[in-house]
Amino acid sequence: MSQKLQAVRGAHDLLDSTVKRYRYIVETARRIAAYYGFEEIKTPVFEPTGVFSRTLGDASDIVTKEMYTFTDKGGDLLSLRPEGTAGAMRAFIEHGLQRQLPVKWFYEGPMFRYERPQKGRYRQFYQIGAELLGPEGGDADVELISLAQNLLNALGVAERTYLEINSIGDKESRDLYRIHLVDYYKQHESHLSEDSRKRLSLNPLRILDSKDKNDIEVNESAPRLLDDLNESSRTQFERIQKSLKDLGIAYSINQKLVRGLDYYSHLVFEFRTHALGAQDAVLSGGRYDGLCEMMGGSPTPAVGWAAGIERLSLLMLEDPLSTRPVALIPVGDKAERECARLAHELRGRGFVIDLSYSGNMSNRMKKAVAHRALGAVIIGEQELAKHVVTLKILDTGAQSEVKRQNLEAELAKLFNQ
Ligand code: ATP
Ligand code: MG
After folding, report:
1. Which residues have C-beta atoms less than 6 Å from ligand 1?
2. Which is deepest, 55, 106, 141, 262, by most CB within 10 Å?
3. CATH number of 326-416, picked from 3.40.50.800, 3.50.50.60, 3.55.50.30, 3.90.180.10
4. DSSP 175-230
């Protein structure tokens, strides 16, 4: 017997309400990104594995545990993208866009990570993201946070999120901090989780955002990164905070918010939520001044963020409203053909028309109501003979006879109300 065919564990179909929300989130993000002058880009969902392993680093969780990597029939080592920044940067360098700075990019699409599936955590999930290449840290970072905040507002989810920021400074500050931090962790090594003991030599900063109970205890009294920031890093962080206040964007500083990847520097931020259990990250971003050079391009300051569409969708309390249709309801064979013709014509002019394929008048009327139609255009023998239609407004029940040549104008009125 053949096995039942099912979606891959952790991959999910987007149907009904889910796909409506997905589309709404992407369309809203695209619209708001355009207000800020961001252009959309599409990069491939797979890249040579090096695009990710060289940038995310062989020590990162994503590369060591979560990446879908395979050899294709030509023998090339490829990976499904786990995130969007590395591919965007690869494209930036490959197309020689250095001369066109600043580059402002918006993207959306699927990402792939081999994780333990649960609510808000999938193996194929979708992200929207924004990247701003060119400007040094400061106002550009705030502009990106402003974009994120306006997006969360527009989606109606802002009140279920809170913004946390931190600075991991420049390399000099971080190198100093790393020494202090490793010193401290060495004194408490026996209390750290096994994972974190491994991170101690590879990536000690990552221990700070560990979710392990023992690690969290050790972290309580860990040295503070902000204490090790040098003058210029501190000034940049203070400027960002002042601008956030000017914009009225509420935030708090979380000293333990880090990105463990080497190419990150200065600002790190995250819009988080209490509504999704352990999946508390909704929109995560930061400055990655070191990435371009690390990938073989000229040093290029950059800042960006990415948000999980599924998590945004889980935070939305209601489905977005879609355009209400007008239903065409034929009575009799001749009218049926006339309605098919009329539907073609009206749809060609941009009206949303609902035309059921079969059923008697009352069945079709029920369907029209179920589809939240604004109105029903009823055409029977009599209407055909008189070149009129009966137009019923479904919200009020009001019914009137409309001349065929006036139908379009009447419908336009209805749609524009
Ligand atoms: P987490 O701590 O939840 O694993 P992360 O730090 O790995 O998140 P990023 O790599 O910063 O997340 O990705 C940006 C955003 O993408 C996150 O804020 C989250 O909304 C979303 N995201 C990350 N991983 C997943 C996943 N497996 N399924 C769904 N959404 C995800
Ligand atoms: Mg993760």
Report:
1. 83, 113, 115, 120-122, 125, 127, 279, 281-284, 306-308, 310-311
2. 141
3. 3.40.50.800
4. HHHHHHHHHHHHHTGGGS-HHHHHHHHH-GGGGGG---HHHHHHHHTPPPGGGG--
